[in-house]
Amino acid sequence: MAKRKRLLLGLGGILALGALGFGTYVLVFSGRSVSTDNAYTDVEVAEITPQINGPVKQVDVVDTMAVHTGEVLVVLDDTDARIAVAQAQADLARAKRQVRQVMANDLNLGGQEDLRGAEIRAADADLAKAKATFEKATIDDKRRQNLADGGAVSQQELTDAQAELRVAAAAVQEAQARVTVAHAAHSAASGARQANNALIVDSTVDTNPEVLAAAARLEQAKVNLARTIIRAPTDGIVTERAVDVGQQVQPGKRLMSVVPIDRIYVDANFKESQLRKVRPGQAVSVTSDLYGDDVLYTGIVEGFAGGTGSAFSAIPAQNATGNWIKVVQRLPVRIRLDPKQLAKHALRVGLSMNVTVDLTSLRTDKSSRED
Questions:
Q1: Where are the domains of the chain?
Q2: Higher-confidence residue: 273 or 368?
Q3: C-alpha dihedral (30, 34, 35, 36), degrees to nearest 10
Q4: From CA 46, how far away is CA 67, in angstroms rounded?
Q5: Residue 177: what are its φ and ψ, rounded to 5°?
Q6: pTM of the full predicted structure?
């Protein structure tokens, strides 16, 4: 009986110590952190797509291969692109020669305009001469008519004087017509020069719009030639390669992906009830199922997603139905990891992680302090 009593007292003491320990934990440690194992690695994957069409000439990478920024991934056949560059170079040279020709025409048209101006002056002089002759013929005709009345001149002389007057009048009309023609020719020459000058005004050969347009086409052809070589946009691991030699590719078609594993982050899906005290900038402890507890990553809460996973699902939940059942939602929280730790213990996209946020830690991220 005494032994049983001692056992009961011992058991009671153990239970009391357990309750005291649990109470101490709740008072001291509870509420200082939140944890979840619903967390996975992710990263902004670089999609490799061609910007021009053409047949694939060479593929230099395979899945799982590590590449660095600028390394050649795929080479397209550049025959058409080189021909396009040569054609654009010829078009640029032709455009420059045409502009030089227009500039030379301006000098020629300027000479034509000056010539037409001289013709106007010559026609004006001829008109003045014809008018003077007409005035003299008019005076001679009147004088002979007066003399003919007195019988001082013969009828033949009077007839000759009248004929000379008509000839002089016709000469004046002819001279006036030449003046009109000269002015019209000068206007035509001036208009031709203005039209020609409009093509080159305020520009040199190199700054002429036609030359600039041809130069732009040449630059585009060179860019397209450079795009026949597809390079890695970032450091990372090649994955999902879907291109082979001889394949005809089109702009925008995905050829492969490059995963920048040095910029991997963690999306931790916390329950909404766990996020009351979680703030950007708080310190985070992370372990992976890949390495286990032997490798501890340190991170920082970088931000929260704009909505829960169910809100952005293909078929969002209809919570306004009559048979609604409340389900605790989870909100993705992005955790930024230490790049040095990632370099030492590399991760891949989609790995399972265990995340613990220290709710008492101070913010160290400047952008977080601004929230």
A1: 33-44+260-313+323-369, 46-78+227-259, 81-220
A2: 273
A3: 130
A4: 12
A5: -65, -40
A6: 0.68
